[in-house]
Design brief:
This protein is mainly α and about 100 residues long. It has one domain. Helix content is about 85%, strand content about 0%. Helix 1 packs parallel to helix 3 and helix 2 runs parallel beside helix 4. The protein is elongated and about 40 Å long.
Length: about 100
């Protein structure tokens, strides 16, 4: 139970950080929805703490990559980077779905 709350807390911290970095962008909205899906999976018992931590780790890696790409390009993602991020988010979304079912 302690791990579950730790995962939710970490997820909330990531959402808070992500929210300010990617406010109202498509990428940011999608990250927020995925965080909500993870939190729902944990609260409904369809996702365990290990699965949530694994996905959270992957999201943290993606967030770092996005932050680095934006810093390198004056605060914006290039179309190629945006496409790459979208593909990575698709993979995370599939993983969340698979973990929940």
């Amino acid at each position: 139970m302690k791990r579950i709350w730790m995962g939710i807390t970490i997820g909330a911290m990531l959402v808070g950080t992500t929210k300010s970095m990617f406010a109202e962008s498509e990428v940011g909205r999608r990250q927020q929805r995925q965080q909500q899906r993870i939190a729902n999976g944990i609260s409904h018992g369809t996702m365990n703490a290990h699965q949530a931590a694994h996905v959270e780790h992957q999201e943290a890696h993606l967030n770092k990559e996005i932050r680095t790409d934006r810093q390198a390009n004056g605060g914006k993602l290039t179309p190629q980077e945006h496409q790459q991020v979208n593909q990575q988010q698709n993979g995370l979304s599939r993983e969340i779905y698979d973990d929940k079912h």
